[in-house]
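Lab notebook, design round three. We kept the backbone fixed and only want residue identities now. Task for the bench partner: fill in a sequence for the structure below.
Input structure tokens:
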């Protein structure tokens, strides 16, 4: 078994702590990172980037007299059109882009996995089919190299963190990507994680016959730094690594 993860799929409500975990791992020296968290050199794929690109394309269409296709503008950014609140929506398109990006940039270069761990990050609410819909879109060979870490917070905590991020945005924090209210409700109010896992803290999801290990990490109360945060992350990732085959 490899010393480090190949792929960690990191899921959870917006504001739940996904970006904070990644920022923490980035700042952890490589040897400590490998020993405590089983993570090598870092690479990232986050579908929020592709959603944002589509919204910016709407700006370009509008600038040349065209009709916006995906979004409406909002003081905090954009809100996805309700017309896309159906199966086969824009969220499915960006989920499919994971397959292209991961195959082209990483899996076609096997040496990447000698010393790297790829984080695959996304959030999904029930309105877009939940996490199950994205897992159904991800290719088999990606899932076979993956383990899932779900960072769990309540909807109330997600809302609190989103407001805190808005305040940080006013000060220019790198972690300050807050969401408009409509988007927060869409991606955060309800998801299908507990249904998928039966409420278990850890185990395996059977996805098209592929046993994908998962761990649910409770991220409340919020911890900013210190040994308790080290222990929270280390426990969750060590448990996940123990499940990975």
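Proposed sequence:
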């Amino acid at each position: 078994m490899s010393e480090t993860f190949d792929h960690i799929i990191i899921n959870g409500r917006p504001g739940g702590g996904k970006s904070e975990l990644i920022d923490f791992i980035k700042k952890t020296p490589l040897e400590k990172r490998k020993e405590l968290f089983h993570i090598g050199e870092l690479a990232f794929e986050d579908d929020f980037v592709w959603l944002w690109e589509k919204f910016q394309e709407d700006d370009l269409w509008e600038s040349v007299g065209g009709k916006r296709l995906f979004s409406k503008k909002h003081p905090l950014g954009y809100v996805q059109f309700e017309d896309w609140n159906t199966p086969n929506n824009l969220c499915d398109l960006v989920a499919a882009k994971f397959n292209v990006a991961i195959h082209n940039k990483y899996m076609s270069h096997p040496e990447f996995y000698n010393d790297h761990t790829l984080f695959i990050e996304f959030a999904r609410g029930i309105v877009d089919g939940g996490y199950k819909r994205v897992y159904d879109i991800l290719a088999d060979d990606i899932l076979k190299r993956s383990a899932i870490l779900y960072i769990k917070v309540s909807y109330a905590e997600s809302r609190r963190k989103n407001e805190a991020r808005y305040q940080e945005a006013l000060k220019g924090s790198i972690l300050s990507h807050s969401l408009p209210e409509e988007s927060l409700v869409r991606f955060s109010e309800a998801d299908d994680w507990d249904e998928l896992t039966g409420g278990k803290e850890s185990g395996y999801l059977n996805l098209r016959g592929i046993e994908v290990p998962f761990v649910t990490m409770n991220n409340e109360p919020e911890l900013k730094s210190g040994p308790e945060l080290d222990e929270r992350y280390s426990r969750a990732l060590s448990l996940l690594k123990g499940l990975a085959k």
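Keep this in mind before ordering anything: The first helix runs from residue 18 to 27.
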